[in-house]
Amino acid sequence: MAKNGEPDYDQVGDEGECKVKIICLGDSAVGKSKLVERFLMDGYKPQQLSTYALTLFNYKTEVNKQKVLVDFWDTAGQERFNNMHPSYYHQAHACILVFDTTRKVTYKNLPLWLKELREYRPEIPCLCCANKIDVDYNVTKKSFGFAKKQRMPFYFVSASDGTNVVKMFNDAIRAAVAYKNDSTDFMDEIMRELENFELETDSGSQTLDDKKDNVSESGLESSKNKDNDDDDSDVKS
Ligand SMILES: Nc1nc2c(ncn2[C@@H]2O[C@H](COP(=O)(O)OP(=O)(O)O)[C@@H](O)[C@H]2O)c(=O)[nH]1
Ligand SMILES: [Mg+2]
Predict the structure, then answer these.
(1) What are the tens digits of pLDDT across the range 92-136?
(2) What ligand 1 atom has the least distance to the C-alpha of 74?
(3) Ligand sitting nearest the alpha carbon of 101
């Protein structure tokens, strides 16, 4: 532990594990907390960092036979004030940018979140996801130009029914470990993999419905607070 009781990610774990920190960014109520909870299901031990009202979720896994300790950092809603305390970004190894497919303004704000991230962490891998696709699966027919423009891996996800959640977090963990190990071409590898992943989905060999069959319902309430922003710029059907 370093100052303020925060973990120090430059140190290795007690058993020599690689320690990485992953953060989620995006507007309030896009589903950042639910996505982390969905990924971890029962297997998490939340830890409160009282200084900044942050919660850490510890997760143990292995990447290429290397033991990895992942800390997912979650906010207590500070994003409502449109920026995060610098300690949220400190030593982060990967970031997941989240928007809510039912509220267009959350998509439009992604460049602002990315800008803030890059002020603190210019180089870390960043992934992007469109959450709450369970509300209307037709949204997956739209293309969202932002991620492509920024050359970020992009995922349609649902914290509610689990679609693509495991895939996305596993990619984020691998990206974080690769970043920590100085393996710079790893993001290109994920991008190439996702191109094939999309092709498979298009050809019908793995449809969203198939993927849904592999996950159980979580009983999350669905979001009804749709935003009535009708400006369709950069969102193509
Ligand atoms: N329908 C639906 N609702 C979701 C999904 N993810 C989150 N929500 C709801 O959206 C609201 C905000 O979620 P939360 O995780 O607290 O958002 P955060 O502020 O970004 O952490 C809650 O009411 C969740 O139940 C999803 O995938 N589908
Ligand atoms: Mg939250």
Answers:
(1) 999 999 999 999 999 999 999 999 999 999 999 999 999 999 999
(2) 21
(3) 1
Q: How many domains does the chain have?
A: 1
Q: How much is the pLDDT for 132?
A: 97
Q: Whose CA is nearest to atom 11 of ligand 1?
A: 29
Residues whose Cβ atom is located within 5 A of ion ligand 2: 32-33
CATH number at residue 221: 3.40.50.300
What pLDDT, on the 0 to 100 scale, is given for residue 1? 47
Asked if residue 237 belongs to a domain, the reply is no
Q: What is the DSSP string of the chain?
A: --GGG---TTSPPTTS-EEEEEEEE-STTSSHHHHHHHHHTT--EEEEEGGGTEEEEEEEEEETTEEEEEEEEEESSGGGGT---HHHHTT--EEEEEEETT-HHHHHTHHHHHHHHHHH-SSS-EEEEEE-GGG-GGGGGSEEHHHHHTT--EEE--TTT-TTHHHHHHHHHHHHHHHHTT-TTHHHHHHHHHHHHHHHHHTTSS-HHHHHHTS----PPPP---------TTEE-
Whether residue 61 is contained in a domain is answered as yes
Q: Answer yes or no: is 178 within a domain.
A: yes
